[in-house]
Amino acid sequence: MLHHCRTVYRVTGTKITSCSRMPTRSRYRHFTNNSSQNQKTIDIDATTGASSIPHSGEKADAKKKPKKMSMKELVNTDGLEWKKMTSGQRVVHSAKTVSYTGVIIFGVVLFSTIMFFLGSELFGSTSASSVFSDALDKIHDSEAVKDLVGDSIKGHGDHSGSRARRSRGINHTITDATATSPRKMYVRFYIEGTKSQGTVHCNMYEDPETGKWEYKTLRVDVPGQGLPSTRLYVVDNRVKTKPKEKKGLFKSLWKSKRQQPQQIESEMDD
To answer: What single DSSP character describes residue 53?
Structure first.
C-alpha cells in the first residue's frame, strides 16, 4: 500500500534544512532540536505551508507587557461591571458615585430650605401675609366698609397703578418686646372697590402665651372725594378708660372740652 508523503523543512535561525519525509496520515513527527537556546525552530510543511512554533516561543509571547490604559478608558466606566473593572477604574467609579450623591443631597437640602421659608412666609400664622389675608376677610364682612368702598373689594400691597408694585410684599413693621409690652406689628395695605378705595391699618400685638398675633385695631381710611376722609374701625380692642370728672371752677370748661372732637392718634400708637 502506497503512502502519500510530504516534505517538512526546518528553519533554524537563517538556515532552512530538509528534515524528513513523512506520511500524510502520520499523526506525530519527531525532530531533534540542535539549535541553541537563543534560536527559534519553525517547522514548515512544504505541501500545505502550515508552520508550527515550539512552546518556548509561545511562552515568550505571553510575557509581553499589557497595553497601557488611556485616560479616557480609565474615566469612562459607564456600563462596565464591577468585576470587569481594574483597580484604577474602581477608584474613579467610586469617586464619581460619591460626588453625584453629594450634589443630589445638597440640592434636596437647598430645595427644602427654600420651601420652608416660602411656606412660613405665605402660610405661617406669624407672617404679614397671614395678617393681610385675615384682615381682608374681616373687611369683606364689614357692611360699613362696603357702603363706602363698594362690592368686589380687592387688596394689594401698593396703591399705585403698577401691577408689579401691587403684587409685591405687604408693607409691615415689627418692634421687639420690652419689659412692659409684647412684640408689636403694624401692617398697611390698600383696598379698592366699585365705589372708592381706601387704606387699611392693622395694629397687632403678639400673645405671649400662644405666640399668635392678635388685633389691637383694624381700621380703614376712606378719602371723602373733596370731603373729610372717613375712618372706620372694623376691630377695636383698645382699652377704654373713663376719664375722671373734674371738680371745681374748671368743671364746665372740662365738659365742653370733652365734647370737642379729639385728634386722631398716630398709626403706631392705636
So the answer is: -
- The pLDDT of 161-182, averaged and rounded, is 74
Higher-pLDDT residue of 146 and 86 is 146
At 235, the amino acid letter reads V
Q: How many domains would you assign to the chain?
A: 3
Q: What is the CATH number of the domain that holds 168?
A: 3.10.450.320
Q: Are residues 91 and 137 part of one domain?
A: no
Q: How far is Cα 44 from Cα 29, in angstroms, rounded to an integer?
A: 12
Same domain, yes or no: 178 and 257: yes
Last residue of one domain, picked from the residues 62, 84, 106: 62
Longest dimension (CA), the chain: 167
Mean residue pLDDT of the chain comes to 70
- The proportion of the chain whose per-residue pLDDT surpasses 70, expressed as a percent, equals 51
Give the separation between CA 194 and CA 200, rounded to whole angstroms. 17
Do residues 236 and 140 share a domain?
yes
Give the amino acid at 130: S
- Neighbour tally for 222: CB within 10 Å: 21
Could you give the CA distance from residue 122 to residue 163 in angstroms, rounded to a whole number?
A: 19
pLDDT for res 247: 54
